[in-house]
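pls ignore typos typing on phone
FE2/S2 (inorganic) cluster + seq
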Amino acid sequence: MADIITVTVNGEPRELRVPPEMPLVWALREELGLTGTKLSCGIGVCGACTVHVSGKAVRSCVTPIGEVSGPVTTIEGLSSPGGLHPVQKAWIENAVAQCGFCQSGFIMAAAALVDEAPGAQPAELLQQMTNICRCSTFSRVRLAMMVAAGHGAKIHD
Amino acid sequence: MGQRSMTEALQVDRRRFLGGAGAVVLTLACGDRGIARTFGVPEPVATEQVFSAWLSIDARGMVTLVNAEAEMGQGTNTAMAMLVAEELEIPWGRITTVPMTARPIYTNPAFGMLKTGASLSLKGRYLQLRQLGAAARQMLVEAAAQEWKVPSQACRAVAGEVHGPDGRSTPYSSLVAGAASLPVPQDVPLKPRADWAILGKPQARIDMADKCTGKARYGFDKTVPGMVQAALVHAPQFGARVKAVDSKAALAVAGVTRVIALDHAVACIASTSWSALQGADALVIEWENPDPAAVIDDAKIDAMLRNGVAGKGQGRNALIPAHKVGDPAAGFAQPGVLAVSAEYSTPYLDHACMEPTSAIAHVRPDGIDVWSSTQSPAMIYHAAKLLYGFEADKVRVHQQPIGSSFGRRAQIDGELEAMVLSRIMGGPVRAIRARSEDIQHGFYRPASRSTLRGAVKDGKIVAWSHRCASQSLLDNYARYFREYGIDLKELDKLTGPAGASGFNFAPFDLMSVDGTPSNAIYAIPNVEVASAKIDVPIPTGWFRGVGQTNNLFATECFVDELAYAAGQDTLAFRKVLLSGQPRFLAALDRAAREIGWDKKPAKGIGRGIAITNMSDAVTVAIVEVAASKSGFEIRRAVLAVDNGIVINPDVVEAQTQGGFLFGLGAALWGRISIAQGRVEQTGFADYRLLTLQYCPALTVIQMPSDDPPSTISEAAATVAAPALANAIFAANGRRLRDLPIARDDFECRATVA
Ligand code: FES
Ligand code: FES
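k done
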């Protein structure tokens, strides 16, 4: 039977009795009830399942729980007691989400980019945002990313 | 789809008392015959059971509206709440929505059934929900007047309170109980548009924060106590059946408890989704495949489509006249006309919804509960009646917010599987499937072929012929019900005119000619449209933009071809065609001005126009590309839209952007290919979808008018492909008549580099 795996999720150590090959996304959703992290393509292409491990964006559908080596942050743990993450604020102010199913993943990916490289140029940031949104909210994703990264609302020109 | 008159008498109907914990609530129900109501005292029941009707007001004055339209990103939570809040006179922010548990009283009057789709949410609810809000407001005012012993004319509703003479006021929450004994008022006048405080202005989506903090829940997130997971594997070849199953390896997966063979699929039952999916992977299934001669592939389908447009089909596959204006033969035969012809084709497309297909069902001896992200709750309870004999009130369909749909979740294949499996398991079952299953067992936008002929004289189109061929959406839609022994005719009887196949009243499928000049906006004196259907066993269904995604591509590109053939500027050429259409002309002019049509673009830059009247709205797109021999880049796009009276301009903008980019992604790369009787694609790696690097700078210009509200995103999805193809031709002279546009020797380059 499965060993006990200990992993810190949103600041709390959690013990899971699951096989180490279980993808992190399923451990979060079905073992810990954290359904804010979504699953869509299941093969690491779309980014809907993006969470942070040690502050870096990872696609949790292709990350076995046994290989998680640092603290995990999910969309539920992104905001601090002080308030929403700047990316979340920019997302809400610019009304990005439509159905919203991809948005946890977008926000986690954008938050990692903005936090990791403050002052990065718009094109660098946008190149790395490879998430898929079938509602195709990309116009506003661009806008919100620029606002969150401190580049104001101008993307084109 | 008869629009039911909402001015019919409002009827009073005492239903059961319902309430939220600790609150007295006023519940109004607006059925298809008018507005009824119930009044309640607390009853500790789960949220899903609290609301049997539309509206409740709690002790803090917070209003909760049942949203009878699926929320799938198109913003119905917000729009429906706005309609009620405006008439109820409550501040924006004091109203929230909950998804319904489906009941016939929630039927959309524009649809004639309880279903979300065809861009009919606003059309159907626009009057209905304002009337509901107005009736509730009037009852609250009356209750205050009686309490104060003043005439109700001396009182008025202001921001969630009733104000009376001498400056007195009282909040709605204290009036709810008093309003209980009053009759429901008839024909309360609605506010004139000039007085609107909430409608017509950009309002923040009421679910935006939840969607950005991970709190929003979708059907895929739903759990119910005691449920098991069932991962389905469907027959890879269309029409194949299960012959034998070796479940040894599957049962060896930890957590897997059972394997159930259905006719068309096998389910692996487990305690967790992951175990179920792993078990499904380990199944060894022998399929009874269809006769090899009947096994289809792209080449066979293409031959059938060519046969269809050539008029060589027989019987039900014959080319059938669908539309005729003037005398097309004489039009083409006029002396001095310039005749042009061209062929266009489009491939099968999958919706590729972000949320994977899933549904939970619990079939009990005394009734059924279903929880799902569905566009078609009524189809579920009607199908359940035919399957198990339960009346609609014994089948509770709990609407869940949908993680994008585009027509896919109008199909109830997943719900049927969940019901059948629940019945076998004797408890709640959640039916799921891997993405590869989802993409290989969709309800595809059918492939099509169009042959066009046009005649131009003196700079005007004098004759037009469009022959199109594709599978019929309507013949194929609902075919899967047969798997369950459900008689489609019986289902049609229950669902009404807009039901399972009830649209199919013409010898040709109306949707298959949508987007040809049969929906005339252009002044062309002689037109003929003919349609042929082909029969292949590929499930097809509604896809955002439906028939127009096929035919509008051909129509709008061919208008462009004729303009060039006539040696004319494509904008000027179209303006002549639109001479009787002031709304279209205005939008076209506005878009042209925005993109700077007057200034000739540099070499290698081209602009293309496309126009549609889909959903009774006006949608004009102009796309600007830079193109060389080896590739292209989409620089800019301008959309000018007139969708009548606008409820929420912010959502209109978002939906226009999203619809257009959805169509653009499909135009660039979308293609489901068929080989050996099955879909070749396996997921998002080989079914390429749009990412932001390829998106153009997008400008949306709203030109609202006084026409009834219509929605826009389906229309915006249809103009992308023709506008792009026309722009590429303008840039490098390459006329692309077959979708998708991007190909190995002609790639789409990122705009963010
Ligand atoms: S679900 Fe993980 S990348 Fe798509
Ligand atoms: S908002 Fe719907 S998929 Fe992105």
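The longest strand of chain A covers residues 4-9. Residues A 39-42, 44-49, 59, 61 surround FE2/S2 (inorganic) cluster (ligand 1) (CB under 6 Å). more later
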